[in-house]
Amino acid sequence: MIESITTIESLIVPIISIGGLSLVFGALLGFSAKKFAVQVDPKVEKIRNILPGVNCGGCGFAGCAGFAEAVAKEEASYRGCPAGGSAAATAIAETIGINPSVSDRKVAFIKCNGVDDNIKRNYIYDGPRSCVAASQLATGGNKSCSYSCIGLASCKNACPFNAIKIVDSIAEVDSKKCTACGKCVTVCPMHLIEIIPEKSKVRVLCNSRDKGRVVRKNCRAGCIGCALCQKACEAGAITIEDNIARIDYTKCTLCMKCVNKCPSKTIAVMP
Length: 271
Prior knowledge:
Layout: H1 2-35, H2 42-50, H3 64-72, H4 85-96, E1 106-110, H5 131-135, H6 154-158, E2 164-167, E3 170-173, H7 183-187, E4 193-197, E5 202-204, H8 212-218, H9 228-232, E6 238-241, E7 244-247, H10 257-261, E8 267-269
Antiparallel strand pairs: 1-4, 2-3, 5-8, 6-7
């Protein structure tokens, strides 16, 4: 009997000791959590709730959380989320207590009209379905124009908003779905894609810097650098640089004179 009591006592003492230590450590952990807790700006959570949450990286940050923190710290513009557009910008501005300014919506634009009917092909490409891989070939792809859209969907695959499709071997942007996140711009090895104001409907559908005679040989819709558009533009919005017409969208008045003068129909009005 005495041995049993002794055994029980020998068990109770460690149990009490362990329980006491647990209470002490628990109290210390609770104190440490309060003492060293990182204070989170409530604005960050509010901004994150406004953002679409797609983590596309179009804002320049790894994800929506990083962008929200930067905006709350005034290290990034409240208009920096292309996926959220003007609606998100307005809501964020109200959250951080500033008056939102109106900015033009922007979209991605692919500077090429080298569809199957306009351009020649040097050979049948049977390699990896990647524009980057095809561009590494000596000819820069299988199309006769070394500046044309390769059409193997690298930009389409990179778009998180399903705003790009491949039609007649070139990429097309659905402006209604496009958020101007810029991911397509980054992956295009031909540097054909740029972000422009959506309202700028008059655009040059070519990116070739070849001289006119070479362009004519390779593509029926390429810019030949004839400068007729430049001469026709009374607003001074068009210049010829590196054998190709370039439009200053801040000067363009949509008069359409350049569209009517272009002999190869390279300048077009977008829907």
